[in-house]
Amino acid sequence: MYRDIKCKKCRKSILNEGQTKDLFLNAHSSPVASPPEECASVQEQSNIFLNEELLPHWIILRIEAEKWSRGKLNCPYCDSKIGSFDFVSGLKCSCSSNFLPPVHVIKSKIDLIREST
Ligand SMILES: [Zn+2]
Ligand SMILES: [Zn+2]
């Protein structure tokens, strides 16, 4: 379980599981467990997917600005790119048994703070 996601560039907290439980999903749309039950997909190694029903307000505004099609997600503080969304293509996971959740953040652009237990 991730407690917090921070922008790697400005180090501000942009997503917080404390407020939104089950926000973070793996490539098969299951909540990210600890230890995570991972698909061997490339997408999952480099991305964290977000539950579209629990998206924070700033992400919804970005998606609405693109009329729920596709676009980039930028950090709300420093505007560097941290992910993207695609409600059009219906991309599949590389094991091709599942459609990927439409919104993701890129692991290399963020800092993941894990629950310390
Ligand atoms: Zn930032
Ligand atoms: Zn898969």
Word description of this protein:
This protein is mainly β and 117 residues long. The chain has one domain. Helices cover 12% and strands 31% of the residues. The radius of gyration is 13 Å and the shape is globular. Bound molecules: zinc ion (ZN) (2 copies). The site of one zinc ion has 8 residues, from loops.
- What small molecules does the structure contain? zinc ion
Rg? 13 Å
Strand content: 25-35%
> Strand pairing plus helix content: what structural class?
mainly beta
C-alpha end-to-end distance = 10 Å
Biggest sheet: strand arrangement: 3-4-7-6-5
Q: What percent of the residues sit in helical stretches (DSSP H or I)?
A: 10-25%
Gross morphology is: globular
Number of individual domains: 1
Number of H/I helices: 2
Low-confidence stretches: none
Which key phrases capture this entry?
single chain; 117 residues; 5-stranded antiparallel beta sheet; 3-stranded antiparallel beta sheet; binds zinc ion
Q: What is the gist of this entry?
A:
The chain is mainly beta and 117 residues long. It has helices at 42-46, 57-65; strands at 2-7, 13-16, 24-25, 47-50, 70-74, 81-86, 103-106, 110-114.
